[in-house]
Amino acid sequence: MPPPFPVEAFPARTPAASQIFTTVLSHGPLTRADVARRAGLSAAAVTKAVRPLIEAGYLVEDAVEDAGTETRPALGRPANLVRVDAGRALFIGVKITGDEIFGVLTDLCCRIRVARNFPLTARAPGAVLASVAELAGELLTEADGFGVPVLGCGIAVSGEVDRAEGAVRYSPFLDWRDVPLAELAAMTTGLPVTVDNDVRALTVAEQWFGAGAGLSDFAVVTVGAGIGCGLVVHGRVVSGVHGVAGEIGHVVVDPAGPPCHCGRRGCLQAFAGDAEIVARVREATGTPVTDSAGALALAHAGHPGAREVYARAGEAIGRGIATVANLLGPERVIISGEGLAAYDLFAGQIRDAFTAAAFGSAARCELLTRPLSFDEWARGAAATAIGSFVRADR
């Protein structure tokens, strides 16, 4: 059966073309010589790969004078600058949470042009797919005004995701198991669909455009309903054989700690997950708080029991980040997620526990907090769709 969408192929879909395009996307405009240097390719390879991308309109070459820069070689004629034509195509990104979905329409440079969000009234796959289709339909209608095609859709979901198969193996917050989400969403949206773990998708966006740009080794740790970690090693986002690389939420940071829903004790999730914090604040204070806002309010009001819960959460997060630093030696760990609303309550504990647990030079790793909205997570999903479009092995 033919696919339910018109397919526009990325020209010259080779490893070199993909690498060159993403290099220009992340760091451009660049001269061809700079592209070759950053990508580790020969000038001839760059010229061969760039030509069809320019002919198809994905890349544009500007004279230095037209690009508004003073950069030029000391001798000879000025080198032209290569950049991505952001308006050449559009992509959709969708971030699914336990109770809401967030969607963005981005250009080819992954800049958000339109953003929408819908509440989720049910978490069953059929209900969520219906909401995704409705959201995508709104964004496709908006896309009509731009006059260029929408070439793909990325969907980001928490939990174990097999990106190659486009399947959600297990998502605890949606209670899904073995859902072929890419196939189902392609049928309901009419677009090629890429599905990835939400933290890995956010990591792609940080690698291309955010606080990880230009770094070969870094990590993204997210704090909120779950504790996630995205890893970039030698310039590549790491998924692992089964798609669960970076699963630090169930690293045991204190064997004598509280029970975790996974059946063990003392996991990072058991200390620092939103629901776990709320439960422990309720227990420590005797106050019937039901959500993170209530727990935060008690802690900010100075209740010692609530503040102690957040302090222990910070210590656990610091130990978890130190584990990442000790294993991989990243230059930077970016801390994000909705849990940063409580950052003032545990920032000191994160830093102190990290410093105490990081071994040797691993303690030199920079910890950077970066609050990001769920629209930015959806943008990460769009980035994975762009990556799938240009990748040679798709």
Description:
The protein is α/β, with parallel strands linked by helices. It has 3 domains: 15-84, Arc Repressor Mutant, subunit A (Orthogonal Bundle), CATH 1.10.10; 89-204 and 375-390, 2-Layer Sandwich (Nucleotidyltransferase, domain 5); 213-369, ATPase, nucleotide binding domain (Nucleotidyltransferase, domain 5, 2-Layer Sandwich). It is built from 12 helices and 16 strands. The chain has helices at residues 15-27, 32-39, 43-55, 125-143, 181-189, 198-209, 268-272, 274-285, 292-300, 304-328, 343-357, 374-390, and strands spanning 30-31, 59-62, 81-84, 90-96, 100-107, 112-119, 150-157, 160-162, 167-171, 176-179, 193-197, 218-223, 227-233, 236-238, 332-336, 366-369. It has a 5-stranded mixed β-sheet. A 5-stranded mixed β-sheet has the order 14-13-12-15-16, with helices on both faces. Strand 12 and strand 13 form a beta hairpin. The two termini are 19 Å apart.
Overview features:
single chain, alpha/beta, five-stranded mixed β-sheet, globular
Q: Order of strands across the biggest sheet?
A: 6-5-4-7-11
Alpha plus pi helix count: 12
The dominant shape is globular
Give the averaged pLDDT, no decimals: 91
Strand content: 15-25%
The end-to-end distance, rounded to whole angstroms, is: 19 Å
Query: How many structural domains can be distinguished in the coordinates?
Result: 3
Number of separate strands: 16
H/E element order? HEHHEEEEEHEEEEHEHEEEHHHHEHEH
User: Tell me, what is the CATH class of the largest domain?
Assistant: Alpha Beta
Which regions are unreliable across 5 or more consecutive residues at pLDDT < 50? 67-71
Major β-sheet annotation: 5 strands, mixed
Helix content, binned percent: 25-40%
- What is the H level of CATH, i.e. the homologous superfamily of the largest domain? ATPase, nucleotide binding domain
Structural class: alpha/beta
CATH topology of the largest domain: Nucleotidyltransferase, domain 5
